[in-house]
Amino acid sequence: MADYTGVDFMRLDDTQFSEEERVVRDSVRDWVSKEFLPRLQEHVRKDGSFPMELVPQIAELGMFGANLEGYGCAGMNNVAYGLMMQELERGDSGLRSFASVQGSLCMYPIHTYGSEAQRERWLPGMAAGETIGCFGLTEPDFGSFVTGMATRAVRKGDGWVLNGTKRWITNGTLAQLAIIWAKDEEGQVRGFVVETDRPGFEARDIKGKFSLRASVTSELFLQDVEIPDENRLAGVEGLRGPLGCLTQARYGISWGAIGAAMGCYDEALEYSKERIVQGGPLASKQLTQQKLVFMLTEITKAQLLALQLGRLKDAGRYDHTMVSMAKRNNVDIALQIAREARDLLGANGIVDDYTAMRHMVNLETVRTYEGTHDVHMLILGEHITGMRAI
Amino acid sequence: MKVMVCLKQVPHQDAKLDINSDGTWIQEDNIKFEINSYDTYALEEALRIKDADADTEVVVVSIGPDRVTQALRTALGMGADRAVHVNDAEAFGSDALCVAKVLAAVAKAESPDLIFTGLMTDDGNSSAVPPMLAELIDVPSATGVLHTEAANGSLKVERELEGGAIEVVELPKPCLASIQTGANQVRYASLKGIMQAKKKPIDVKTAADLGVSDVASKATIDKVYSPPKNATADILSGSTDEIVSGLMGKIKELGVL
Q1: Residue A276 forms contact with B (CB below 8 Å)
Q2: Mean confidence (pLDDT) of chain A
Q3: Among the listed ranges B147-151, B229-233, B235-239, which one has the minimum average pLDDT value?
């Protein structure tokens, strides 16, 4: 099967993307093809592991916090960052999640809400991949209804004591630090940088996942974890803090999902041209062409949506509702495309020599995390009507 | 030390190629291009010298249309210091000698200690330009190089010979080496490197700027075509004995043994 050269029906390459953006995309694409994909299968077959030996390479390429300025970060624009995420998720949603969590959910809050001392203390090591972060917001009983969080931060002397449980935390057992969101005694949400070797902090992996198998998902237990006030992210209070991080990560997902969809389309197209069914290529059947045309059309629309969002983000003219639309739509079409691609691959599509089913089950997670498909619909519904739906 | 690396941007190895409408080259519109694979090893070999000696300057040179800047930016992103882009419609796609003449003019202006090229290009496949370039600027050269070791006044290289033998050659500097694929592990352009590359200069020149004239190809391509698909296969059927005797009969009939 031919190697992957991307999907660009509307010629965005030579009309919309800058040279720098194309070079970034091609460099990441090449790395994913040559270094990541050959190692992926063994991690997918194991339950919940990530090819950690690649972390130094990911860092060397500058993929942690790539759209942040300074502190060892690459300082790329948001379209180049999006293209990077697209290529990482063409590899696997677990790989893109690793980069999303490190960059958008852990480095971004330190960069944006942290003090200069905090930025200098943590960001260079995180950009270098020497310090891995995880993001503790979701709890066993509070997912979309984040306002209900039960984790508490209580003042003690000059510091704080944290108690609570966080669940569905990517990289929890791999991390050296955790961004923990907790309510203080007044009910105000605050963010803390918690080193994971502090007494009372424990992380355990969640096993038995059908999805995101090449990714570590954990549960965090905080029992009387004492934190100095210098570890508090003082630049933000309230849900604005974690939601600001999620907007960044969701932006990356809106590009990443396109990568998964492009990979599925490319695989299904090549397969259907070679697979002979009833005396002719599968691609020569009307039903096959209907599926392929659907895939290409939806990929192209998603590319245009993400590109316009990225340009607005670079110009400082975007808002979180636009991110909701892009995340919701692009993950949804990617999942539909993965299902259609799996269908075209027939029985071959259920084995892990092909990618569509892996992307399909990964995307079930991506549809659920970082604001579910339905929650993003309600965000947009409230935005256009001015009414919070009941 | 200064190392000049010659790069060609060629159609991506996995691009789906069609013949152009007048049947003289491939359709280049809307296909992906990349740096010729052999040249990436040449660039990596040069960057390793720079890794070991920070005073080394790596200059990448390419002949081609506007699109070639992406290949040069990639090379700069990988760590090259600056680029020379010969954007000249006559020189681009010209024959090997004319291409070598243009590169020789760049080499004379740059006076590098070392010139690294790929052994051949993925599209042209001639392997002719590197030795021609060395001859035109009157420097010694080695082809098919798998390993280089730069010393003060010389370059020691290991060349791949037929049958798996390795030949060790020492060339006085300045000299030229054409590098074989697999000579090293080629690095990726890092995102930080790509950002820094924006500030690195690409010097755009025409052949006339370099003082070279008459660079249009002397050789013309008459035709490019895909080999016709022949329906001349005979499929033998029957029992094993019948197939074997049928095959023997065919071999005798064709007189191929």
Answers
A1: no
A2: 96
A3: B229-233
B28 CB neighbours in chain A (<8 A) are none
- Of the CA atoms within 13 Å of residue A80, those in its CB half-sphere come to 23
Which of A127, A145, A167 represents a domain boundary (last residue)? A127
* HSE-up (13 A, CA, CB side) for residue A208: 1
Domain boundaries, position A107: 19-127
* B57 vs B152, residue with greater confidence: B57
- Interface list for B 195-224 with A (CB within 8 A): 195, 197-198
Q: Which of A27, A63, A75 comes nearest B77 by C-beta?
A: A27
Smallest Cβ distance to B191: which of A19, A30, A66?
A: A66
Q: What is the pLDDT of residues A284-305, one digit of tens each?
A: 999 999 999 999 999 999 999 9
Residues of A taking part in catalysis: 370
- CATH no. for residue A31? 1.10.540.10
Q: Residue ranges per domain, chain B?
A: 2-205
Number of domains in chain A: 3
Two structure tokens written together for B50: 């720079």
Quick one: A298 and A345 in the same domain?
A: yes
The number of angstroms, rounded, from the C-alpha of B5 to the middle of its chain's C-alpha atoms is 10
Residue of B nearest to A18 (CA): B70
A215 and A245, same domain (yes or no): no
Q: Is A74 on the interface with B (CB under 8 A)?
A: yes
Q: Average pLDDT in the A75-93 region? A: 98
Structure confidence at residue A274 (pLDDT): 95
Q: What is the ipTM of this complex?
A: 0.87
Q: How far is CA A165 from CA A34, A203, A221, A246, in A?
A: 39, 10, 5, 19
B73 to A23: CB separation less than 8 angstroms, yes or no: yes
Please check whether residues A138 and A89 belong to one and the same domain.
no
> Which of helix, strand or coil describes residue B168?
strand
Residue A2 lies in a domain: no
Is the domain B2-205 a CATH 3.40.50.620 member?
A: yes
* Rounded (10°) CA dihedral B26, B29, B34, B37: 0
Per-residue model confidence (pLDDT) at position A1: 37
Does residue A163 sit in the same domain as residue A119? no
Q: For residue B15, is pLDDT > 90?
A: no
Considering only the beta carbons, identify the residue of B15, B190, B198 that sits closest to A61. Answer: B190
Q: Answer yes or no: is A12 within a domain.
A: no
What is the chain A residue with the closest CA to B70?
A19
Query: Looking at residue B231, what is its pLDDT?
Result: 66
The predicted pLDDT at position B151 comes to 86
Give the helix/strand (H/E) hosting A13.
Answer: helix A12-15
